[in-house]
């Protein structure tokens, strides 16, 4: 699982940080989300999916690695 | 096929007797019929009422629905064809992109999860001070004035940099915008007084910047008028919403003693308890959007220009989303309530509100193990449904001193 945040869409709600703080943080200056662990450990996947769903701005993009 | 959608003819003006925490029965019934109902505004303009969780969420996330003030229509009063001016500069709740972002962006860094958590200790201190004062004065007391209103008020005033001595009159004015019972004349007077006060405050911060959000914002390209607008909505939101959550939330806990006991017994329950109280009470209960083009919502076509009333509190009681939705269950696992909204306007101050409630509820119930209502539950005065934010007017409580 890979995640990125579309900084232009992010509205700084903090929902992702609240949901899974070891994977997301907010930048100090502008409050936008940053991804701490772009390839989050498997035990956080469920919460990461929840964060994707909760994000009010649909700013978190989730892609599953497609390995040959 | 060709089935005509469910219609709601009038917006309810009261809750069912004995059910102060539940949305009006008419709205619950509407949702049972269908998540979207037709609603004709007084004066005959056609519109919609959305009560289902999924649909409320999808409308809030959809940029084809506008929040602009000039499109708003009063849900229950016919003001004829008077033109509503656009939102004043800075009042970004009632704007769409790109104007909305101009104001929200410089604020986003000031309300982050981390910054708000850093305020925990300060909230604890203020909470303890007010509990001490309650103890000293002794029972009975009105929990609204002794506890629920001052805690969030002090926090938002300190955050923004409103001097303590100005807080009282300011709070009274904001209350008169929000209580749903103020005459038009008094509303105008309160609004003017508030604007004058904020103009002075912004000028003072420009002249002598202090360590607060408003002073920090003077260091941007925002004009005085814009700063005033921003200050107004932050203060209004910060003063009234959490205060109502704290008072109504305490009322709800007192009416659900086994839940109250659970919160007392298990401090780790606090975070979940706050989310559940937010869902169950949804004090910011209704918002409106206007379709900018024809949009299909739940199989109905919402025509360009039509208004859609979104019932957050009914959506937060949607059984398709929450099991046993009318039960207050502090251990509930499913999150995702709409109490702070959804989409780009989702509450900016939500992390502050969480910290305040996270501290205040447990502190209150632990300090007073025998806390109870001092009047019969039917005797608790409630705000009318016309108020933007629901709550109790006062909450007489007592305890064994
Ligand atoms: S939940 Fe979405 S909008 Fe909120 S901070 Fe995270 S990425 Fe940004």
Automatic annotation (TrEMBL), chain A:
Chain coiled-coil ranges: none
Annotated keywords: 3Fe-4S, Electron transport, Iron, Iron-sulfur, Metal-binding, Transport
Pfam families: Fer4_13 (PF13370)
InterPro entries: 3Fe4S_ferredoxin, Fe-S_cluster_ET
Swiss-Prot/TrEMBL cofactor(s): [3Fe-4S] cluster
GO molecular function, one term: iron ion binding
UniProt keyword Signal present: no
Its biological purpose: Ferredoxins are iron-sulfur proteins that transfer electrons in a wide variety of metabolic reactions.
PANTHER family reported in the protein's UniProt record: FERREDOXIN
Protein name as annotated: Ferredoxin
Lineage of source species: Bacteria, Bacillati, Actinomycetota, Actinomycetes, Micromonosporales
UniProtKB/TrEMBL annotation, chain B:
Keyword Metal-binding carried by entry: yes
GO biological process: antibiotic biosynthetic process
Molecular function per GO: heme binding; iron ion binding; monooxygenase activity; oxidoreductase activity, acting on paired donors, with incorporation or reduction of molecular oxygen
Tree of life domain: Bacteria
Keyword terms: Antibiotic biosynthesis, Heme, Iron, Metal-binding, Monooxygenase, NADP, Oxidoreductase
Pathway: Antibiotic biosynthesis; mycinamicin biosynthesis
SUPFAM superfamilies on file: Cytochrome P450 (SSF48264)
Similarity-based family: Belongs to the cytochrome P450 family.
Designated name of the protein: Cytochrome P450
Natural source organism: Micromonospora pisi
